[in-house]
Amino acid sequence: MPSGTTAKYRYLKNSLYLCVVAFLFLLAIFDLFVGMSNDFVNFLNSAINFPLP
User: Are 28 and 22 in contact (CB under 8 A)?
Assistant: First the structure.
């Protein structure tokens, strides 16, 4: 395999790794947002003592 081809595959592998890490980071941020929203709704429900359907 020529050295240019090896560098190309290394670049693609690094790009894929970076995309996966970025996707997991965004998923973690989204999960934190959903969890905080759920806590907010639960505390608000307790504060106003009004059961949601």
Answer: no
Structure tokens at 24: 């997991």
Q: How far is CA 10 from CA 3, 18, 23, in A?
A: 11, 12, 20
Confidence check: pLDDT of 24 > 80: yes
For tokens 């504060």, name the residue.
47
Tokens of 7: 């560098």
Regarding pTM above 0.70, the answer is no
Q: Name every residue whose Cβ is closer than 8 Å to that of residue 41 and which is 6 or more positions away in sequence.
A: 52
The DSSP call for residue 49 is T
